[in-house]
Design a protein that fits this description.
eight-stranded mixed beta sheet; globular; six-stranded antiparallel beta sheet; Alkaline Phosphatase, subunit A; Jelly Rolls; alpha+beta; 29 strands; 25% strand
């Protein structure tokens, strides 16, 4: 017979076991949530889409076979920053001022991310890869406990290693190819926290430029094809391997049926109309394809934001579905918070919980309409009808019979166009700023995109490629390390003479110099004379920026004069600068001297 103290001890142990069992049981009821987010990934480029036979993505195909391949899955914008902001907040991004790249992120910083909501509910949260929503060193402020923000082969912010070990948040040199590093780090976090609920945001910078696939992936795609296409296929093959590593790790730890997975593209592929197979891996076509959809990144046509979209949750979502109703990346936050039992207010999120719809519990469409506004474009999809506006142009399509958006039915169905325009306008009045934008800004590529893709006009021929070797043999060729766009240049006894391209109505000439590595802030000085009134504009890009942000530019008005003028400007950044543009007025401009003086190091000049 047990003594009184022994019985008391046994009761205490029994109670402790029950409490532990209860806690474990509660944890097991909360599913893991993983979001794979690819970058400039065209609709055609999953092999399960069955568009082309050169792409091979067996692991994503298996993910789709285990759940849902959405036939009509949409991002919230045809561009990186806004689509990521909408995904992270779960609210249409123009409600908080992040409508396009280059817009201030103050509104985003004031909002609550999915990660913050789930972290407060006890989830382990981790971010991998591309962020593009502010400084990567500040990602933990947005709800991520662990960060491995590698999106290139340069140093990146991280507070874990690829093996999942903790380290102080600071720059980390690459341990492997950026796609592979993110995949390995994500798998390591799964193993480390296999008994706790997880939210993983795996945002691969692929197949976005610069195209940088290593040989082990390139060799999977031999044969004749555009080199940029080979690079895209190789980068997406690395992504597919990463999906395979993560799903294998889940299976090995008994977590497959406890994990909801999304695989979504952030926007369509950039084609630049011509899909030019230019040398190198820099700006231009990224090698991915949007077929059979019309248009490309930078458009609210289907090719711009109708993306690869896969959802899997074995045991909860029936396998092998091709889901016919439109769904949105905005639905990720609403779904995640619902299945994690995180309370939200009615105006917190714009998406819907997809699980009742994808499980078959609710047979209706999740949305009666989806709406977008991006700069000077806006669109609404209601059922199979889609109204698309670009500036003052308007198009109406029946996507059931014309997913390729080839037949504008606005004149045939004016009553439908009027009703959709009114609904779209009422929605846009809720945004910041309110209303439907009408003007196409000068220099916007989407103007020529609309001409070509939607109006059927012949595209402007590509400019002749700049051949440094041939240019060096030209009698008047300037032997300088700068390239010129939208004009012609030659060296004279007075200096570098730049003549604007009369055919280019959208942009005045600019000099460009890439592959720099100079410390900011920079003092720029230029001595010149100009035949036309205009501006001298200095623009710059840092290593973490893939595009020229609006805030990274300074311009000074100048008058036409036959006399020499000297102006100075500051590039007030504390980061390194890797790319500089110097834009000059239209007409003819002669530059006598041009100098970029960094905080330390050598001066960058016109000739060296």
């Amino acid at each position: 017979m047990l003594t009184k103290s022994a019985r008391k001890a046994r009761r205490a142990i029994t109670l402790l076991i029950l409490l532990i069992s209860s806690a474990v049981g509660h944890a097991d009821e909360r599913p893991n949530i993983i979001v794979f987010y690819t970058d400039d990934h065209g609709y055609a480029d999953l092999s399960c889409q069955d568009v082309f036979d050169d792409i091979r993505t067996p692991n994503v195909d298996a993910l789709a076979a285990s759940g849902v391949r959405a036939l009509h899955g949409y991002s919230t914008a045809p561009q990186c920053v806004p689509s990521r902001a909408g995904l992270m907040i779960g609210k249409f991004q123009a409600r908080f001022g992040v409508e396009s790249n280059g817009r201030p992120l103050d509104g985003f910083d004031r909002e609550t991310t999915i990660a913050q909501r789930l972290q407060a509910a006890g989830y382990i949260t981790a971010q991998f890869g591309k962020w593009h929503l502010g400084p990567t060193a500040e990602i933990p402020k947005h709800g991520f406990k662990h960060v491995y923000a590698q999106n290139s082969q340069g140093p990146f912010s991280a507070n874990i290693t690829a093996g999942g070990d903790d380290r102080p948040m600071s720059p980390l040199k690459p341990e492997m190819y950026h796609v592979d590093g993110c995949s390995q780090a994500a798998a390591s976090i799964i193993k480390r926290y296999k008994d706790q609920p997880l939210f993983l945001y795996v945002a691969y910078r692929a197949p976005h430029v610069p195209l940088d696939a290593p040989p082990q992936y390139l060799k999977r795609f031999p044969g004749k094809m555009p080199e940029r296409r080979r690079q895209a296929l190789a980068m997406l093959s690395a992504v597919d391997d990463g999906v395979g590593l993560v799903t294998k790790t889940l299976k090995e730890n008994g977590l497959t049926e406890k994990t909801l997975i999304f695989y979504i593209g952030d926007n369509g592929a950039p084609l630049k109309i011509h899909k030019a197979d230019t040398p190198g891996g820099g700006p231009g076509w990224d090698g991915s394809l949007n077929d059979p959809l019309n248009g490309e990144k930078g458009m609210l046509s289907e090719g711009g934001m109708h993306t690869p979209f896969v959802v899997s949750w074995p045991g909860k979502i029936p396998a092998g579905q091709e889901y016919p109703h439109p769904i949105s990346a905005l639905d990720v936050a609403a779904t995640a918070t619902a299945i994690a039992n995180v309370k939200t207010e009615s105006d917190d999120l714009d998406g819907v919980n997809l699980i009742p719809f994808l499980s078959g519990q609710n047979k209706a469409a999740p949305h009666d309409a989806l709406m977008w506004r991006w700069v000077s474009q806006s669109a609404i999809r209601e059922g199979n009808w889609k109204l698309l506006r670009g500036g003052n142009r308007e198009y109406l399509y029946n996507l059931d019979t014309d997913l390729e958006e080839k037949n504008n039915l606005a004149a045939n169905h004016p009553e439908i166009a009027t009703r959709l325009r009114k609904r779209l306008s009422d929605w846009a009045d809720e945004l910041s700023p309110p209303g439907l934008a009408k003007d196409m800004p000068n220099g916007g590529a989407w103007g020529s995109y609309f001409d070509f893709y939607l109006d059927g006009k012949e595209p402007t021929p590509l400019r002749d490629k700049f051949d440094p070797k041939n240019a060096a043999n030209s009698a008047n060729a300037p032997n300088i390390p700068w390239l010129l766009r939208s004009g012609r240049m030659r060296m004279t006894k007075d200096g570098l003479r730049i003549t604007a391209d009369k055919k280019s109505k959208r942009q005045t000439p600019f000099l460009a110099r890439n592959a720099l590595n100079i410390e900011g802030p920079i003092t720029a000085a230029i001595t010149f004379r100009a035949s036309d009134k205009g501006v001298i504009r200095f623009s710059w890009r840092t290593p973490t920026e893939k595009e020229f942000a609006t805030e990274n530019r300074v311009q000074i008005p100048v008058d036409a004069s036959s006399d020499w003028q000297t102006i100075r400007a500051s590039m007030p950044t504390s980061s390194k600068i890797v790319h500089v543009r110097v834009q000059v007025p239209a007409g003819e401009t002669t530059i006598k001297t041009l100098e970029l003086t960094p905080t330390k190091g050598k001066v960058i000049s016109l000739r060296k």
